[in-house]
């Protein structure tokens, strides 16, 4: 039976025969692997801090470096997805980023380690390709859910990385290597995973349900060329950028600081700290998907603005949970409050990208890039709080929680159901063919 060349209107989890579902599975799995490269060093930071003699401020700078490179990279990758295609874009990104992941073990000073963490941070742009590619493969009625599931299962890599990398490190030490050697050798695993993912992505995915960009006639793109100004002058895009800065920004920040926070504040060892931090990321197996599913259901009844209200509620509750976590007096309460704010944070991630593909049908990649970059801008800004010698990690979490409540109110007062000024149709009702610009 010939595979459909139209976007799917449902998710067939066990279907590997259609290009849409094959691309879906390879996309989320590749994003999952990217987290091993991006945050593979984070759960090993207690050891690296001691090995390189890093101060709190220097550790903070490396965290900022890990997310700041992604800001510009996400904007560029978003535009490349619109023009060059997600398949070749992702493959090249994976190949380039495997190099600093393999070579970070050569670092023997703060300066070289900082440089490598900055270079590795480019891999964070992989998220934009993931969301763009999923948006292309699925119809509007299921797009938010598909984006959320793919993003959530990919983000799950952040949790597994926190859990697995300390185990890999311990196994290398048990084999007779020193701690200094072990953390360096451990990074061979993430580098190898990126190379394997590059091969899988190039071989088993297509740019669109109809085929790759170079093999098909992109009629709609010829009529409606991408327009950067349309994106940058749309307040709705910036409202979602603010939202994503506080939810995904907190996610990548927590992936960076969690192990250190639990080691320093509660006196547990690196391995157990990694396991606890891993629980935070493990919620992505369902939580981000829930955000997308709920948003799609609300959207069918209340439109895009209804989705916005749901997103606002998630962010406000995330903020409340962060304040509770910041004031944890015991490891037990810290874990419970962490899971509470993590649940709503990840549902907010999913709800954000249930809105993003509908804001501008001709610039799906660029909108995804701008909003995605917002997540890293948030992560970078939070990094300055965690590097400060005058602010404790607990105080930093509390400040971010209060900012989240404010951000939620901003989103709540944004009207997302605007007429599309370029074609006169409500964005939620645009035909699939036009929306995908293929």
UniProtKB/TrEMBL annotation:
Keywords: Cell membrane, Membrane, Nitrate assimilation, Transmembrane, Transmembrane helix, Transport
Membrane topology: Multi-pass membrane protein
Broad class of the protein's primary localization: membrane
Any Pfam family matching the protein: MFS_1
Alphabetical list of InterPro entries matching this protein: MFS, MFS_dom, MFS_trans_sf, NO3_transporter, NO3_transporter_NarK/NarU-like, Sugar_transporter_CS
Domain Major facilitator superfamily (MFS) profile: 23-419
CDD domains, per database record: MFS_NRT2_like
Entry GO MF terms: nitrate transmembrane transporter activity; nitrite transmembrane transporter activity
Highest taxon in the source lineage: Bacteria
Gene Ontology biological process terms, A to Z: nitrate assimilation
TM spans (from-to): 21-39, 59-77, 89-108, 114-132, 153-177, 183-202, 235-254, 274-296, 331-352, 364-384, 396-414
Gene3D superfamilies: MFS general substrate transporter like domains
UniProt-annotated location(s): Cell membrane; Membrane
Gene Ontology cellular component annotations, sorted alphabetically: plasma membrane
PANTHER family (UniProt xref): HIGH-AFFINITY NITRATE TRANSPORTER 2.3
Family in the record: Belongs to the major facilitator superfamily. Nitrate/nitrite porter (TC 2.A.1.8) family.
Entry-linked NCBIfam families: 2A0108 (TIGR00886)
The name this protein goes by in its record: Nitrate/nitrite transporter
Species of the source: Lacihabitans soyangensis
Lineage, uppermost ranks: Bacteria, Pseudomonadati, Bacteroidota, Cytophagia, Cytophagales
